[in-house]
Amino acid sequence: MQILITGGAGYIGTELTKLLVSRTDVSEVIIYDNLSRSNYNFFIGHSFENSKKVRFERGELLDSRHLKKVLSGVDVVYHLAAKVTTPFANTDPHIYEQVNHWGTAELIYAIEESEVKKFIYTSSTSVYGSSKESVHEEAHPNPKTFYGISKLRAEDHVSRLSNLMDTFVFRCGNVYGYSRSMRFDAVINKFVFEAHFNKRITIHGDGRQHRSFIHINHASKALETVLDADIVPGVYNLVDRDLEVLDIVDALKQMIPELEFLFVNQHLKLRQLKVKPNNLIKDQLGISSSQTLAEELTEFRSKLSF
Prior knowledge:
The chain has helices at 11-21, 64-70, 93-112, 146-159, 187-198, 216-225, 245-255, 279-285, 293-301, and strands at residues 2-6, 28-33, 54-58, 76-79, 118-124, 131-135, 166-172, 174-176, 200-204, 210-215, 234-238, 241-244, 260-264, 273-275. The chain is an alpha/beta fold.
């Protein structure tokens, strides 16, 4: 089985590649990435098991000729590539529209002319917009940011493949946890770093805003397991926890009792987004966790250098 991962050198892609190359039924994993985040950790300081299976192709989603070339012989496509943002940031609409929306469109056009048999897309819970009540997959998407709009438009393009092949859309919560390619603009990752080294974190708003979260190990394991899991193709929420920001602070204070936290614009009540975890899908994909948030963060902290 030959697999293509767009955005494969990123946060989720790094961990997913580790899992895929260890499978005996995978002959090659093609990493298609433009390295726009200038994060080269995918390539240094370690060796992938069966690293001869990995091939890197530097390319853009909007380069349809290159896409068609690398899709030759590919059986499965994971579409992870995207211009990403913090949950409610709302700047630079053009780049989200070009990469997330039209970049996905170009990829889908190319796949429609290929022999690909399965397609897996990582969307975002941001397509739901904001909600005071926990939303599930049947909820009507109502994105509030340019990022969320671009991800929802990408889903529309992806839906065209559902009549041609098994197509999965996973709406991921905020990904957190240690990876050599991790993002430090993600709230939990940023908090752990600042709490450990500075013993102080900064909270925007009153800290009562809810967000949905998924551990990097669970996100990557779910994406790998869906290759042969007995689940119906469709749209699924991929969420571990629905937390207030203050819940994260409480877990950090269990680890670091002397932790200080500063509020910025504490009088502001920021938008809520509550997403109901799909426990049936988590069980079917084998990603249910027995660890508490504090235990996960303690393990994460142990990965820091000093």
